[in-house]
Structure formats: C-alpha cells, structure tokens
Amino acid sequence: MNDTSEFERIIALLLPALGETLAMVAIVMFLVVLLGTPLGVLVFNLSEGGLFPDRLLHGVLSWLISIGRSLPFLVLMAALIPFTRLVVGTSIGIPAAVVPMTLAGTAFFSRIVENAIRAVPPILVKVARASGASNGQIITSVQLSEAVPILLGGLTINSIAMVDYSAIAGTIGAGGLGYVAVTYGYQRFDQPVMLATIIALVLFVGAIQLVGDRLVRRATPELARSAGRPRLLQRAR
Length: 237
Description:
Elements: H1 3-46, H2 55-70, H3 73-79, H4 81-88, H5 93-118, H6 122-130, H7 135-146, H8 148-169, H9 176-186, H10 191-225, H11 230-236
Helix pairs in contact: 1-2, 1-5, 1-8, 1-9, 1-10, 2-5, 4-5, 5-8, 6-7, 8-9, 8-10, 9-10
C-alpha cells in the first residue's frame, strides 16, 4: 500500500468520525446549556444569599449534582444503560451516548453557572432590588448578564470535556473519533490510524479553546464599558 492510498484510507475513516463527534458534542452542549443554566441559577438562588433561599431544597439539588459530577463517565454510562434504553430505545450508537453525556454535562455546567453567579458583586443585586427589579429581572439582567465572561469560559471547558466523553462513548459503538481509535487503532493495532485520531482530537480541542478564548475576550470589554450600569437600572425599572 503506497503512501497516497494509506493517506486516503485514513482520511476516509477520520472525516465521517469527525462529523459524528461534532454532531454529538453540538447536540449535547445544546441540551447542557438548556438544562444546566436554569439548574445552576436555581441552585445558587436557593442557597444562603440567593434570591429565594431554601436550605432543604438546595441541599437535595446540590447532592444530586455532586453525584452526577463525581462518577467517572464510563461508570455513569454503564449505570444509566436501563434509563438510556427507556429514553432512546437503544444502548448503542450516538443516541445512547447523548443521554449520559447530557446528564454528566448538565451537572458540570450547572456548577459552573452557580459559581459564575456567585462571583457577581452582591451590590449589583442590591442596586437592582432597590430600583424595583423583580427576581426574574435580577436573574437575567444582573446575575447572568454580569457572569457572561465566566460562563463563556466554563462553556469552553465543558465543551472540551464533552469531546473527551464522546471518545469514551466510542466503546459502546457511538461512532466518532473515539470509536475509530478503539476499533482500528487499538483492537487492530493500526498505529497510523491511532496517531491520526490523536492529532484530530488535539486539533479539535484546540479549535474549541481558540473560539472560546476569543468569545471571552469579546465579552469582557463590553461589560467593562458598562461599569456605570445604567442599562441594568433601566431594565430593572
């Protein structure tokens, strides 16, 4: 087999796998943001110093989130097989990988949201409250708005973690770069494919980090320019 045909063989394996990995991460991160953002907001505001503190409910939600974060993903994926079958009707393939990846990612991102809101100066909430803002207005115009740079940074970290999880999900036939690495690189001892897969994963993660860093840099000056925060007060009225 000459070098050209070997290169074409590797590309033919990697391109569809890269598309599957991208699809998995995109679907999962959409669900993670959709579920993790309100969960993180709720957990923070149920804590002491939040908008509607409730020690019991906060303790229960925090405990559940901690379980989702503490379990290694491979263990979580195996433990959720009955639930995954119930939700998507199968325990293999991309749909089966999306379920545990979403649950693990949601637990992770909700903590990021909680910590991001905690970093917002409490004085801003007091000013908004004194201006007559409702809880909903404070959450959107103060807590989430001021936490945008931290949230974008956390979203970048979470997305990279989902790339890692998608590779692990390759062990259940979920497809993607992880499946190619396991099936061809490991089981068939195909070193060129394994090396190419590693390079593809490194470049993919590097691209996510680059985009995330640029978004954070763009978001930070916007907040710095609004140091007087008349916009927040206007929305609060």
